[in-house]
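Re-run with default settings, no changes from the original entry. Doing this only to confirm the output is reproducible before filing.
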Amino acid sequence: MFMDASQRPAMAGGIPTVRLVLLREDGTEGGVLVIEGGPETIGRSHGPPFDSDAYLDPEHASLSASHEGLLIDAANSLNGVYLKLEGRAELQHLDFFRVGQELLLYEDLPEPTPTPDGTERMGSPNPGYWGRVSIMVGPDRVAAAYPIKDEGVGIGRETGEITFPDDGYVSGSHCRVIGDDDGVFLEDLGSSNGTYMRVRPDQLIRPGTLILIGQQLFRVELG
């Protein structure tokens, strides 16, 4: 149910409710999507505010409210749903993330193993690469790939191993992918426009989190 930001519907007792507050580019509120219990499907075929967003599937994601926040399942959608990173978060193999207008993909690069019959796999000498970040010109089209070794790579408009000098939405030093004994992490470096990670299936989104659904930005609130 999408309504004016000032409205608050009557809620049935005990049913968890989550409000997705639509944020305009100037920071003002543009309306509220109310999720009562669920699951509730959103997408281009489900009316405002998603019906004119070409980056959404007709049946894009399933949303469910809990007393702790919002559960999102967009695993089968083409472009997914993204959450704004606060500080740093763990990166997993095949995680997508967005920096400015750029779509990036992280992949692990484990050491190759022989085939079951003992044949070694041929490849270039590995100087210590443990992962790579790819620039994606579509969900399944790689434009360039950057191997990662040592402590990681930086991403920005002006500095870092991966730069986007023509993207005005990318900060000079925007974010970095780092690896340590605890795992692999994506860390925002205080960028102006934020770093966004694709939501994993049934991931719990806490109140106060900003999420991108297609081209629209929402703030998650408990009802």
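The CA atoms of residues 134 and 145 lie 4 Å apart. The mean pLDDT is 92.
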